[in-house]
Amino acid sequence: MSNQILCGCAVLVGVVLLLTCIPMIILSVKSYTPHCYLHDLYIPALNTKLPTSISNTSAFAVAATFIFFDVKLQNGITSDSVRFRYSNSTLAFYYASKTIANYTVARFSQGKEETTHLHDVVETLGMPWRDALAAVSGGSTAAFTVELATTVKVRREFGRSGHKVLLLRADVNVNGSGERVRNKAIRLVAK
User: Fold this and answer.
1) d(Cα 9, Cα 66) in Å, to the nearest integer?
2) pLDDT averaged per 10 residues in sequence order, the chain, 191 residues
3) In terms of pTM, does the model score above 0.85?
4) Where are the beta strands (DSSP E) in 60-125?
5) CA–CA dist 132, 93 (Å, integer)
6) For FRET with 73, which of 85, 110, 124, 146 sits at 20 to 30 Å CA-CA?
7) Cα Rg of the chain, angstroms
8) Cα end-to-end distance, the chain, whole Å
9) CB 68: neighbour CB atoms within 10 A?
């Protein structure tokens, strides 16, 4: 009789340990990746509704060679035990496969369900403004690419995952008002 009680207790302890360990195993194996969205992009030099244009005012051309952007990095994980730690992150902007602007963000961390907005203004260099303005003036759009490069360390309550390199990008069309065509946020996806 005592052997049966001992066996029953051993099985019960084994089941309890197994049920306790399964969530920890799942958390340690699952790969977590933050989500990145482009919420806003405005390029005043391509706004054909402004009273002056690049072609007739050099002061306007100097003042309007900027890109206004808002990029959202989202940690959608609901677990308290998962945090993202970003290394220095670089946003690159491209037109016709040519880099026209770079923006660097110092390293930062995100906790459970936190969102980080990177919104700023970046100056362009070497942008072929006349080509882009000709495209949007004719009723078409100018195609840009936004790329985010960073390294993310996922910190868990029960250990670390190491570093994960993220290279995310999105293609964005800009119209004659200097704004992106889609009203909905554009998700940056892996290359």
Assistant:
1) 71
2) 62 59 51 83 87 52 76 78 83 94 89 83 90 87 94 74 85 92 90 75
3) no
4) 66-74, 82-86, 89-95, 98-105, 108-110, 115-123
5) 14
6) 124
7) 25
8) 64
9) 15
